[in-house]
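2024-03-11 09:14:02 INFO receiving multi-entity request
2024-03-11 09:14:02 INFO entity count = five
2024-03-11 09:14:03 INFO echoing inputs for audit
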Amino acid sequence: MENSIAWIFIFPLFGSVACAILGISNRKICYPIAVLSMAGSLWAGIETLRQVLSVNDHTVSYLFGGWTLDAYPRGVGIEFHADILGILITLVVLGVGLLVSLYSKLPVEEETPGKEPLFYTLFLLQVTGLAGICLTGDAFNLYVLIEVAALTGYGLIAIGSNRAAAATFNYLILGTIGASLYLLGVGYIYIKTGTLNMVGIHDIIVAEGLADSATMQVAFVLVGVGILIKMAFFPFHAWLPNAYSNAPTTTSCLLAPVVTKVMIYVMIRMVLSVFGVEFSFESTLWTDVLPWLVVVAIVCAAVMALAQREIKRMLSYLIVAEVGYMVGGVWIYNYYGLIGSIFHVISDACMTLCLFLGAGLILRKAKTTHFDGLRGLFTKMPLTMTGFFIGGFSIIGLPPTCGFFSKWYLITGGMVSQRWEYMIVLMFSTMVMVVLFFRMIERIHLAVSESGENLGHGHGDLGLTDQQTRFDEGPLSMLIPLLLASAVVLVVGIYNQEVVSLIEVFLSDFNLPRGEGIK
Amino acid sequence: MGLALFNTFILLLLVVAALLALRVKDLLTASVVFAVYSFLMCLLWAEMGAVDVAFTEATVGAGISTVVLIATIFNLKRKSSD
Amino acid sequence: MSTPEVTVIQDIRPLIAFVAPLLGVIGIVWAGEKRKNLRETFTFLVASIQATVVLSMVPLLLSGTIVEFHVWQMFTHVPLLLRVDGFGLLFACVASLLWIATTVYSIGYMRGLHEHAQTRFYAFFAISLSATIGVAFSANLLTIYFFYEMLSVSTFPLVTHMQDKEARTGGRTYLGYLLFTSLCILLPALSWCYVWLDGGNVAMDFLADTGKVGSFSETTQIILLILFTFGFAKAGIMPLHSWLPGAMVAPTPVSALLHAVAVVKVGVFCVVRVYSDIFGTEVLQQLDGEDWMIGIACATILISSLIALSQDNLKRRLAFSTIGQLGYVILGATLATQQGIGGSVLHIAMHACGKITLFFCAGAIFVATGKKYVSELRGLGRKMPVTMGAFMIGSLSVIGLPPLGGFVSKWYLALGALDRGATWVVFVLLISSLLNVFYLLPVAVTAFFRNPADDSEPEIKEAPMACVIPLSITAIGCFVLFFIAGPLVSMVGLTD
Amino acid sequence: MKLLSYIPVLVVGVLLLYAAKDFPEWGSPDAPASKSPVSSHFIANTGVDTEVPNMVTAVLADYRGFDTMFETVVVFIAGMAVLAILKNSGRKKLVKREFEVDAEPDLIVTNTVRLLVPVIQIFAFYVLAHGHVSPGGGFQGGVLMGASFILVALSWDLETALIRFPLNWTTILGGLGIFLYAGIGLLSMFLGGEFLDYSELANIFPVSREMARYHAMLGVEIGVGLTVTAIMFSLYANLSTEGRLQRGL
Amino acid sequence: MFEDGTIINELLIERLNYFIYVVLLLIGLHAMIAKKNLIKKLIGMSIFQTAIILFYVSIGVKEGSTIPVYLPEHDPHGSHSVPSDTNETSHFDHGPVILDSSLVKGYANPLPHVLMLTAIVVGVATLGLALALCQRIYQGYGTIEEDELLAKMESREIRSKTLSVQIPKDQKLPKKDELKKEKSRSVSKSKTLSASKPKPKGKK
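2024-03-11 09:21:47 INFO inference complete, emitting structure
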C-alpha cells in the first residue's frame, strides 16, 4: 500500500506503547507484542523495498504532515528519503530485530526478572530509532533519531547488573559528545545553507560551490568526528567492549550487529548524498589521513581481540576491527571499495548476530563464556556450535559465507586504488581472526589444557564428567533464531549477486573512480 | 546601546557561572550555581527574541534538571573530590 | 589441452559426484555409534556411487565430449561451474576408486585399534572427498578456490582426531600453513586476476581462449607466477612443506588417502591447472624468471629425498617421500612442454596408487604389531608376508621400475625435459630415483632378510583381513596402471 | 593526566574559531539562514497554512511535527529507562543519609503549598492551551503540571504525592500521551493524507482544512503535555528514592 | 585571519555570541573529559549542550526583528480591537494573508527555536538517565569518583576472573512488583555479575 514507509516505524512505536501500558497488568503479553510488531515492521519494509525498486529513479520520498514538494519549498516538512541503500540497511535492522525478539523470551525472563515490559518497550523503541535513522532525509531529524537509539541503548545495557551501569556511564558520556558534535556540525551546515533537508543541502553546496568555505570544512569535520565516535571507530572505541560484554544477552544480540553498522550507513549517506563525492573526497584531506588511521585501528583491535579470554569481549573487539574495515572501504575512494563497504555492512550484521546469538546460548548452557569453560561443547550442543562457527568462518572469510564476498570486494577495492597498506592490514587481520576462531575450536575440541599438557587419558576422553558432554542442546526458542541467522549468512553469501547488483544500481549515479589497471 | 551592554554582561556572567559550577567542591552548591547558569541562559535567550526557548529552558532546563540533580545528590555523597 | 572437435554437453553427473558424499554424511551421522555396521555400509555405498558416476563419464570423455554443469552464479562474470575434462577426470577416478579401498581399510584399522568418535571420522572423511571431487571438476580459478578452502577446513578435524598434545601442534602447523597461504597469498592473486585479466571481469575459465595472463607485463607475470605457486601450499613446495610431516599425527587412513592422494594432489593439481591453463605453455617458456621454478622443483625433490633417508619413523619417511614425488609433478608443470605437463598429470595417478599402498602397509604394521619405527621392523617379512610383499611392490612403483605404473610417468617427464632442452633435469630425475631406492628398499630388506632381533616378542600374525585386502588390491593396481597406460595417456591428451 | 585533557579541548577550540571567520554577519537579515526559502516560508505562510499566530508552535507541532513526536518518545524513553535501571536494585535496609533530619512536614509550607498547587496547575493548563498565541505549549505546560506534583512530594512526602499520582499511572499516562500524538497522525493517514497530515481531519470535523490543523495541533500539544507530566514526576519519584519509592527527600 | 578590522574588534564586539559559545563549549568538553566526579561530568555535559543551543539560537537572531509571534495586524484570526491613537477602537476584520518579504524581515527566524526546544528536552532526558546510572553505580561500588570506580572494577574483575552470569535456580519472580519490594531486591542483589570458577565445585 502507498505509505508503507510510515508503517515501518508505526508498528514498533505502537507496539512499545502497548507493551508499556499492558505490561503493568500482565507481564507475559509483552513478548508476543514485540514479535508481532517486529514482523509487521519487516513486512512493511519489504513492501517499501518493492516500491523503491518499482520507481524508476529508485527513491521514495515521503513528506510528513502533507507538505508535498510541489506546493511547498523542499525544507518545510520533514522528509523520509528511502533509496536503495537506506531500505537495504533498514531491512537488515528489522530482520535482526525480528530474530532477536524471537530469541529473547528466555534470556530476558532469567537475566532481568520482573522487568520484561520495560525491556520490550526499550527494545522496540531502539528498533524504531535505528529504522528511522536509515530512512530519514532530514539532518536534524537524524540527530533526534540518533538520540532515541542512543538513550534506548543506554537503558537496555544498564538494565542488567551494576557493572553494566558503570560501563553504560562511559558509553553515555562518549555517545553524548558524539551526538552533540554531530548537532553542532548540522548547525554549521544550517548557518551556511539555510536548510536542513539533506537533498537541499547537497543542491546548495553544489550550486553555491561552498566546498572551499571554512565553515563547511569544519562542519564536515564535526559531523565526521561525531559519527566516528558513535561508530566506535578506533580512537573512540573504549566504551564498546565493556558495554557489550556486561550487557544482558538479548541487548548485546540486538546492539552489536546493528548500532555500529547503522552509523557507518550514516557516514556513507553524509559522504555521498549530503556533502557529495567531490566535496568529501577531493576537497578534504580525509582520503589521505583516514586509511592510515584505519590501519592502526584494525591492527590494534585485532591484537586486543587476541588478548581476550572471554567470547563476548573478543567479539566486541572484532566489531571494532570490522568497523575499521568498513571505514577503510569507504575512504580508499574507489568503486569496488564502496561496494565492499556497503556489502560488508549487510554481511557483518548477519555474522555478528550469528555469533552473539551463539554466545548467548553458550552462556546459558555452559554457564560461562570464558575460554576455560568451553571444553566438550561440540558433543554437548552440536547445533549451536555449527551455527556459531558458520558465523566464525564468515568473519574469517571462507567461500560460501557472505564474509568472503564482502572481504573479496574490499581487497579488490584496495588493490585497484593501490592502497597496499589497507590490503596488508586486511591480510593481517584475517590471519588474526583465523587464530582467534581456531584457538576456540582447539579449546572446545582438544583435551589439552591451555598450558599444553593432556587432560584426559587419550582416545577422545576430555577429562569431563559425562554430564558435561551429554547431548544437552539449548531451548528451541533460542536455537531456531541462531540457525536461521546462520542460514541467512550462507544465503546472503550464495545470492550475493542480487545484493551487489542492487548496490551497483545505487552507486551508478555517483561517479566514483574505478582505478586504472596495472598493466 | 543598552541592549548590547546587557547582552555582553549576561554572557560574561554566564562564563563565570559555568566556571564556578565546575570549580566548587560541594555538589549541592554546584547544582545551585548550575541553576543560576540556566536562568542566565534563559534571560539571554529571551533578550535575543527566542521566547519559547527561554520559557522551556526556564522550566525544563533550570527547574526539573536542578530538582533531579539535587534529588540524586541527596542519595549519593555530597562531597566531590575535584 | 582441448582436443580439436570438442562438443560440450550439460549434464547433472558432476554435481551428483560432488553431492553424493554430502548426502552420505547425513546417513552416517544418523546411523551414528549405535548402528556401526549401517554407518559403514552408508560410507561404502556413497563411495561406490561416486566411483560409478565418475567412471561412467570416462567413455564420454574418450569420445571427445566435455561434460559441464552450471551450479551457481558466484560473481557477476564468474559462475561456480563444474566441468569434466582430461585432467579432472583422471584425478577424480584415482580419488574415488582409492576412496573405496580406503573405506574398507579404515573399517579394519579403526575397529582394530578401537578408535573413538568414528562417526565424526567417517563424516568428515566423506566431506573431504566431495571437496576433492569438486576441485577435480572445477572449471575456473574461483571455483577451484571455493573447493580448496572447503577441503582445508574439512580435513582439520581428521588431522586432530587424536585430540591430544601432538594433535594440537600438528593441527596448528597444518592449518597455519594452509589458511595463511590461501587467505594471504592466493586471495590477492585471485582478485588481481579478477580485476585486470584481459581488461578485467573475465571468467578466468581454464578452457576459454580469452583471459590469459599474456596481457600482463613481464614483472606482473613473474609476481603472479610466484603468488600462485606458493599460494597453493597443499602442493608442499619446499619452503612451505612442513605441514605434511606435521599432519602425520592423524590416523593412518587419513594420511593414506588424504595426505598421499587427495589433499596433496589437490594442491599439485591446482598448480598444474594454473600453469597449463591460466599461464599457458608458450607464455611460460619465454618468461625468463621461469626456470627459477624448475630449480625450486628440483631442489624440493632432492632435499626431501635426503631428509627421508634420515627419518626413522616410517610414516614421516613416507611423508617426505610424498613431498619429493610432488616435486616431480611440479617439475613436469614448470617444464611447460606438452610432454612434461602430461607426464606430471600421469604421475599424479601413478604415485597415488603406489604411495597409498605404502601407507596402508605402514598402518597394517601398526595395527598388527604397534611398531612405528623402521629399525623395529627386523624380520617382519616372514610373519606378515602379504603386507611386506605389497610394500615391496608399492616402493618399486614409486621408484619407477618398468613393470609398474611409476615408470610410465617418469618416462614422459624425462621426454618433457628433453623437449624443453633442460638435459640437467634428466640427471636430477635419475639421482632422485636412486635416492628413492635408498630410502624405500632398506625397509623391505630389513623386513625380509634380517632375522628378528629377539624371539621373545609375542606371536605376530598378519594384520586383520579388512586391512590386508585393500593394500593388496592397490598393489595389483600399480601393475594394472602400467598396462592400461594407453587410454590414460590419451585421456591426458598426449596422443601424438 | 590533567594536561593531557587540554589537548582535545584546544584542538576543538582552534577548529571552531577557524570556522568563525567565515560566519555571516551576526543578526543580518540577509544571512543565509534568515533569508532561506524555508524560514521565510514559515514566517510568511504560517498564518495562511495553519492560522496559528505563534509561528514557533506551528513549526513545532505541524511543519516539523515528526520531530516533536520523536522528542516526546525521547522523554518517554528517559522515564522508562530510569524505571528499568532503578527497579528493584536499591539496598536492602534504608541507610540513614548523613544530612537527613526527620521533621514532620512544616505547617507553613504545607498550607501555602495547598493554596499554591491549584494555581500552578491552572497556569499549566493555560500555558498548554494558550500555546498557539503566546509562548508556551506542550512541553512547558507538561513540566509545570509535573512540577506541581513534585511540589506536593517535596512539602509533604512522596507517599502523599504517590496517592494522588500512583507510579503505574505515570507509565500509563506516558504511553497514552504518545498514543494520542501518534494516533492523530495515524488517523490523518487513514483519512488519505500522509502520516501527521492534519488537514485531512477536515473530512470528519466540520472545519476548514487550516482550522483542522489548528485544532489538531492542540490535540497534539495535549498528548505531549500528558507524557511530559507523567515522566517528569516519575523521574523525580525514582531518582529521589533509588527506585524504592517511600519517603523521598 | 580576519580581513577587516582587528581580530578583537571582529570577535569581541560584533560576534561576541559566537566567541562566548565556543568558550562555554570548551569548558563543558573539558569538564566531561577531565573531571573525576561523575556528577561534575554531567554538569559539564549540560553546559556543553546548552552552549550548542546558544549557538543555534544566535543563528536565528535578526536585527530589529520581533519575536516570531504574529503582531496583531498580521494575526490570522482577524477582528480584534486595536487601540488606535483616537479613543474609539477600529476593528480590523481580515482573514489570514501571506506576508511579503519586507514584513518577513520584521520577525525572527522560528526554525532554530523549534530545533532547540527538542535539544533542551533531549538534554534533560539524557541528564535524568545519567543520574539514574550514577545512583546504580553508587549502590554497586559505593563511589562516584571515576578513579576509585575503575580501581574497584579492576579488583572485582580479577577476583571474579570469569565473567558469567550465575543464573540462580531458585529465582522466584516477585508476585506483585510493588508490594514484594524487599524479597526480590535481596535475590537480585546477590545475582550481580560475580561468578564462580566454571569447574564444577561442590556448590553446584
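2024-03-11 09:21:48 INFO post-check: Chain D touches chain E through 71 residues (CB under 8 Å).
2024-03-11 09:21:48 INFO post-check: Residues 54-87+106-249 of chain D form one domain.
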